[in-house]
Automatic annotation (TrEMBL):
The active site is at residues 88, 219. InterPro entries: DAP_epimerase_AS, DAP_epimerase_DapF. One of its GO terms (cellular component) is cytosol. GO terms for molecular function: diaminopimelate epimerase activity. This is Diaminopimelate epimerase. It comes from Nocardiopsis eucommiae. GO terms for biological process: lysine biosynthetic process via diaminopimelate. The keyword Isomerase applies. Keywords: Amino-acid biosynthesis, Cytoplasm, Isomerase, Lysine biosynthesis. Homodimer. Pathway: Amino-acid biosynthesis; L-lysine biosynthesis via DAP pathway; DL-2,6-diaminopimelate from LL-2,6-diaminopimelate: step 1/1. It holds the Pfam family DAP_epimerase.
Length: 274
C-alpha cells in the first residue's frame, strides 16, 4: 500500500488535511479526498490542501486563475466531499503558515496561487496570517430554505459563491442540519450560506453551511461575505467576526477585503490512505 506524508492544520477550527506534492505527481481523486477527510476512518477535515509548485501544473490552470502563474506555490483545495473549490480563506491562511513551517518560503510577505488567482499573504508578528482576498462582488439578493425557515440575504462572490443572510434571532438557534435549498438560477453551482447578526459595534456573529462540506466551525470566505453584506455600500468598515471556532478580523473597502486570523499546524505524519 502506498503512503504519503501529511500535515493537519486549522484556521479558527476550520480544519484541513495538508498534502505536500511539490512536483504535482499525486492523482487526487474524489474518493481519496473523502477517505482522508473522514473523521472516523481517516485523518478528518473539512477539506484537503494539496501543496504543489505552480509550474508543475502546466496548462491546467483555468482562466480565472491566470494571475496564479506568477506564484511559486499553488493551493489545490478540495472540499471534504471531493469536489473542487475556487477559494478558501481559512485554507489560504493555513496553507501560507504551512509553507513557512515547512521551510518552503522564508519571507513574511508572499503570494499563494489559487483557482481565484494570486492571493497576497502576510505572516504577522503575532503568528496570525492576513490574506488579501481581492475584490468582493455584490450580485443582488436571494433566499434559501434552511431546515426550519427561509432566510433572505445578499449574493456575494469572494471568488466562490455565497448567500450572506442577516437574521434577528441568535445565530446559535438557526438549524443548519440540512442542505440549504437555493435558487438554482442564482446559484447554478450551489453556494455557501451564512447566517449572521450584529451583536455589538463592529462585531458580527456568524455560522455557515459550506457547499461540499456541511456546517463547519468557520469559513474564511464566508466571514468576508458576511462582513461585506453588513457593510453599507460605498463605505469602509472593519469587523470582528465571531464563529464557533474562534474570531477573525475583516477590513472591507473599495479595493476588496483583507482577512486576518490564526493558523495552526497540529500534527504531521504519514498516511496509508493515498
Amino acid at each position: 500500500m502506498a503512503s504519503m506524508r501529511f500535515a493537519k492544520g486549522h484556521g479558527t477550527e476550520n480544519d484541513f488535511v495538508i498534502l505536500p506534492d511539490p512536483d504535482g505527481e499525486l492523482q487526487l481523486t474524489e474518493e481519496t479526498v473523502r477517505s482522508l477527510c473522514d473523521r472516523r476512518a481517516g485523518i478528518g477535515g473539512d477539506g484537503v490542501l494539496r501543496v504543489v509548485r505552480t509550474n508543475a501544473l502546466g496548462e491546467t490552470l483555468a482562466p480565472a486563475a491566470r494571475t496564479a502563474e506568477r506564484t511559486a506555490w499553488f493551493m489545490d483545495y478540495r472540499n471534504s466531499d471531493g469536489s473542487v473549490a475556487e477559494m478558501c480563506g481559512n485554507g489560504v491562511r493555513v496553507f501560507a503558515h504551512y509553507l513557512r513551517h515547512a521551510g518552503l518560503v522564508s519571507e513574511d510577505r508572499f503570494e499563494v496561487g489559487t483557482r481565484d488567482g494570486a492571493k497576497g499573504v502576510v505572516i504577522e508578528s503575532d503568528g496570525d496570517v492576513t490574506v488579501d482576498m481581492g475584490r468582493v462582488e455584490r450580485l443582488g439578493t436571494s433566499s434559501a430554505k434552511l431546515a426550519r425557515q427561509v432566510v433572505h440575504g445578499a449574493r456575494i462572490s469572494v471568488g466562490n459563491p455565497h448567500l450572506a443572510c442577516e437574521v434577528d434571532a441568535p445565530v446559535a438557534g438557526i438549524d443548519l442540519t440540512a442542505l440549504p435549498v437555493l435558487d438554482t438560477e442564482a446559484f447554478p453551482q450551489g453556494a455557501n450560506v451564512e447566517v449572521y447578526s450584529e451583536v455589538g459595534p463592529g462585531v458580527l456573529e456568524m455560522r455557515v453551511y459550506e457547499r461540499g462540506s456541511g456546517e463547519t466551525r468557520s469559513c474564511g470566505t464566508g466571514i468576508v461575505a458576511a462582513a461585506a453584506a453588513a457593510t453599507p455600500e460605498g463605505e469602509d468598515a472593519t469587523w470582528r467576526v465571531r464563529v464557533p471556532g474562534g474570531e477573525c478580523t475583516v477590513h472591507v473597502d473599495a479595493s476588496g477585503a483583507r482577512l486576518s486570523g490564526p493558523a495552526v499546524i497540529v500534527a504531521e505524519g504519514e498516511t496509508l490512505l493515498i
